[in-house]
Specification:
362 residues; mainly beta; 5-stranded antiparallel sheet
């Protein structure tokens, strides 16, 4: 309430809440209130948290009605061009099957910036809280083009039961609940349009924290929509629910990251097929060859693949990793450190597909 007049004004106010059945579940009547608002000043009221015992059904809602009744100077200037005064305000909130931090509008894009780091596994995570045990059906994401079009850049949607939050410096405690490989981002044809990534099998959530996000193997900005208007606990500052992992351990975002990426867990009952935008698919096996084989350790082991190779690891017969390479497009692997013997090379392409091939060093 704001008093723009030069005189003190006494006001009554009311506050009513109704559920989706139009039942009155909270009532603060005009007769219970009375405030004096000083000239050119404002006033506010804090009400007790709502206890909604009828908050049920698949699509519950609440409707809140605010009423202000000035006992003097209650008029609206003619040049406001209004059909009535603004003494009554009603807002209805509908609750659906998604957990949401963002306001639905992107002011930018969010992604992992490798900087001078070499290509390799990178992770981004957002913490959510399941206040009671629930079922995770998928993730709703808004992909935008704020930096570049990254269509056909492969990445994995991730769900974690737990991660090693800072200041821990190891990921040994990370517990993965779901990992879904996507060959590309999916751009919606509408403004601030989300796409729903529906899991082939649901994920059981306990009453606890959980994390959603993604994994990528090469350096690119995924461009998840970024809601810069988000304010943690209505106060702002660094968002403590955001984490990233580019060095083998999880880190908190810096103080400039005050908003939130536009990723929303889809929970509750099974999602009808008509609402399913994307389903997990099994990509076809990649075609990968290496040559020469057998090979002399003075040569380079060449790679021929129908997709970019972003990771190459060489193991001996005891499963020890002797060579570990990450890059955006690996064409060959120097093997001068290898002695004569039998080895395996594990090749991962940009789609996240893995081939393991045996080769011989003479």
């Amino acid at each position: 309430r704001n008093n723009n007049a030069t005189n003190l004004v006494n006001v009554n106010f009311a506050y009513q809440v109704r559920n989706q059945y139009n039942q009155l579940v909270f009532n603060f009547p005009l007769t219970s209130s009375g405030r004096n608002i000083e000239p050119n000043s404002d006033s506010f009221e804090l009400f007790a948290p709502l206890q909604l015992d009828t908050f049920s059904g698949k699509t519950p809602s609440i409707s809140v009605r605010y009423v202000i009744n000035p006992l003097a100077l209650d008029f609206t200037p003619n040049n406001y061009n209004t059909i009535s005064n603004n003494n009554i305000y009603t807002k209805t909130t509908h609750f659906g099957n998604k957990l949401i931090y963002d306001d639905g509008t992107a002011e930018g894009g969010y992604g992992l910036d490798y900087g001078s780091l070499p290509a390799g596994p990178g992770y981004a995570a957002i913490k959510f809280v399941a206040t009671k045990a629930d079922t995770l059906r998928g993730i709703s994401v808004f992909f935008n083009r704020s930096v570049a079009d990254v269509a056909f850049k492969s990445f994995d949607i991730m769900v974690w039961k737990s991660i090693s939050e800072p200041p821990a410096n190891t990921d040994d405690n990370d517990v993965i609940l779901k990992q879904v490989n996507l060959a590309s981002v999916f751009y919606s044809d509408s403004i601030n349009g989300f796409v729903d990534i529906i899991f082939d099998t649901a994920v059981a959530l306990s009453s606890d924290d959980f994390y959603i996000g993604w994994k990528q193997n090469i350096n690119f900005i995924l461009n998840v929509g970024y809601d810069n208007n988000y304010k943690y606990l209505h106060a702002g500052g660094r968002n403590p629910n955001l984490f990233y992992n580019l060095n083998g351990y999880w880190e908190s975002v810096n103080s400039t990251i005050t908003g939130v990426p536009m990723m929303r867990p889809i929970v509750g009952a099974p999602v009808p097929k008509s609402n399913t935008s994307i389903k997990q698919t099994t990509p076809k096996s990649p075609t990968v060859n290496i040559y020469p084989n057998p090979i002399d350790n003075t040569q380079t082991l060449n790679i021929n693949s129908d997709n970019l190779i972003v990771s190459a690891k060489v193991f001996d017969m005891n499963s020890r990793c002797l060579i570990d390479l990450y890059d955006e497009d690996i064409k060959g692997v120097p093997i001068s450190i290898l002695n004569a013997g039998i080895y395996f090379i594990e090749l991962t392409n940009a789609l996240g597909q893995v081939n393991r091939i045996k080769f011989i060093v003479n």
